[in-house]
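hey so u asked for the seq, here:
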Amino acid sequence: MSFFELVNLGLLLIHGLVSVALLGAISHQCTAVLRTAEPNRNEAFINRYAAVNPMAFPWAVALLYVTSIGLGAVLYPEYRLEARFSLEEMRLLPVVGLFELKEHFAAIGLGLLPLYLSQWKLSKPVSAPRASTLTLGFIVWFSFIVGHVVNNFRGV
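ran it, structure tokens below
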């Protein structure tokens, strides 16, 4: 394995770890935003999972999101030149299309970050900005799943 491939693999692993951290942070925040005022005793796990302070997450989510996008941008040329070409040769065009959709959603999420941060800065915990948080949560989950699907089709 060449030095370039080793560095690429390391960056891909770091990208994956940052993505998992982002997934955890946005999932906690989305669950806290959706949590009802009256906890149900039958949903003990959900109540504990959602019993976080959603006001503590916006800057962590933003930092992890930008870091994930930055690492993805560094890794993108390798995907574009190697993996995508192989996927197209194997006629796996739906997989390529999913990755294109992921890129577009990630760009929309990047554009949504200033609104998301400003809404969390101005809001009280009771009136949390649900729409921007849930939209960002959907984008993060979609991107995470599609990234793994594409990686599983092509391999590292």
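The mean pLDDT is 86. The longest helix spans residues 3-34.
lmk if thats what u needed
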